[in-house]
């Protein structure tokens, strides 16, 4: 029996478009270079918002991908505040 893919969509809103753009550009480097074998996804900047949409083969793959992106976003936000 084949498992159904698991999907997650997260939309993050930032204080302004500049902050969203800086965070997006920081994380996009990771998005463009990290090979994901069990997860496919989108990472989109839309004004003050960043939208993450991922489809994974299993819970572990989805959780790992989301944790990575949220951690990268937090690091980018923390570096802006310094």
Low-pLDDT residue intervals, each spanning 5 or more residues: none
| Mean pLDDT, all residues | 92
- The general outline is elongated
The helix content is 40-55%
Fraction in beta strands? 25-35%
The string of secondary-structure elements, in order, is EHEEH
What quaternary form is this?
Answer: single chain
Quick one: CATH class? Alpha Beta
The tally of helices reads 2
Radius of gyration: 13 Å
Total domain count: 1
CATH H-level name... which superfamily?
Alpha-D-phosphohexomutase, C-terminal domain
Strand order, largest beta sheet:
1-3-2
Characterization of the model:
- The protein has a three-stranded antiparallel sheet with strand order 1-3-2.
- It has helices at residues 17-33, 59-81, and strands at residues 6-13, 39-46, 49-56.
- It has one domain (6-81): TATA-Binding Protein, CATH 3.30.310.50.
- The longest helix is centred in the last third of the chain and has 23 residues, at 59-81.
- The chain has 82 residues and is an alpha+beta fold.
Show the helix and strand layout.
Layout: E1 6-13, H1 17-33, E2 39-46, E3 49-56, H2 59-81
Antiparallel strand pairs: 1-3, 2-3
Helix pairs in contact: 1-2
Question: Briefly, what is this?
Answer:
The protein contains 2 helices and 3 strands, in the order E-H-E-E-H. The protein is α+β, with helices and mostly antiparallel strands and 82 residues long. It has a single domain, classed as TATA-Binding Protein (2-Layer Sandwich), CATH 3.30.310.50.
């Amino acid at each position: 029996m084949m498992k159904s893919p698991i999907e997650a969509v997260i939309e993050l809103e930032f204080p302004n478009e500049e902050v969203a753009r800086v965070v997006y550009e920081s994380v996009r480097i990771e998005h463009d270079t990290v090979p994901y074998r069990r997860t496919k996804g989108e990472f989109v900047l839309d004004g003050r918002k960043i939208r993450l949409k991922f489809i994974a083969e299993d819970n572990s793959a989805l959780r790992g991908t989301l944790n990575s992106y949220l951690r990268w976003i937090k690091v980018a936000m923390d570096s802006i505040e310094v």
